[in-house]
Amino acid sequence: MIIGVPKEIKNNENRVALNPAGAKELVKRGHTVYVQHTAGEGSGFTDAMYEEAGATILPTIEGTYAAAEMIIKVKEPIEPEYKLIKEDQLIFTYFHFASHEPLTKAMVDSKAVCLAYETVEKTDRSLPLLVPMSEVAGRMAVQKGANYLEKPLGGKGILLGGVPGTLPAKVIILGGGVVGTQAAWMAAGLGADVTIMDVSLPRMRYLSDVMPKNVKTMMSNEFNIRKMIKEADLIVGAVLIPGAKAPHLITRDMLKEMQPGTVLVDVAVDQGGCIETCKPTTHQDPTYVIDDVVHYCVANMPGAVPYTSTIALTNATLPYAIQLADKGWKKAALENPELVPGLNVIKGDIVYKAVADAFDMPYVPVDKYLEEELVNS
């Protein structure tokens, strides 16, 4: 298969979808890998490193898309890329369709095959391609939140862990999944007073067992959230409903109940955000203030640590990329059920129900395409 790795053009996105080690593994299996000139530089990987791994460097993004049967990316295509995507081309990347109607319609119109990292799902309901970036984002959420608690940046002027004789900051984490767990470890390690709020009692029992003593758990509901936010210093939104838009757990009116200088970090921004006043920001302009509450809503947080993120992402995606390249997407999906929920849009049809429901668009079960493959084979 011919595989293309374009340079990411989203604002301040320095990650690349495939590191040289990953490129080498694909080339070893007889595949052709085209990497756009300087695609890896932001992550510390030079064109020469890719060439040494057996990849071919192409000068432009247009040439990379035109040459490839499968495009491997990090972030969803943005508007300048829409016209570059070809019919039947396989696009393997993070899409987060349910929060972005123009992207969804563009991919439907392209008649490409869109396989989303974030909805590839194991039999235990875990999301193996979302986990590495969720781990990065969860840890970064606290790192950034601690920074913006500083007074010159709009915060309360509180040191997250305090010092002897002063109380540590109160950190509320909405969601006890991968992002929430990593955020809790980070905040606890810095000495904060941490509360994880979740709706699953089994998950909270587990977290109570493994977390240090400065981490508590609490049932997530509107009453408890309203109670906790009144004294919170940092609130991390870490809610995920796979493939669907995140629910608003912090509503507009709740900001009035928070103290001035409270910091909100919404890691769920890619899926529409779990904070109603959340809107996507960039590393270039990461925050805004509403009702004296600081909002940090960067949609590609791991892009700020691209070396770590690129290696972590390639480690997770490469086994699936190899299957897709070796077998084609239909056969790979039939032989590996984990790939089936990753299929979101196929040749003009939305085949992931949560995405179709988000925009009241027609839904076509993915079985239509997989059954065709069974018949043809």
Automatic annotation (TrEMBL):
CDD domains per record: L-AlaDH
Enzyme's top EC category: oxidoreductase
Pfam family name, one: AlaDh_PNT_C
Residues reported in the UniProt entry to bind NAD(+): 134, 198, 203, 220, 239-240, 267-270, 298-301
SMART domains: AlaDh_PNT_C, AlaDh_PNT_N
Key words of the record: NAD, Nucleotide-binding, Oxidoreductase
Similarity-based family: Belongs to the AlaDH/PNT family.
Protein known as: Alanine dehydrogenase
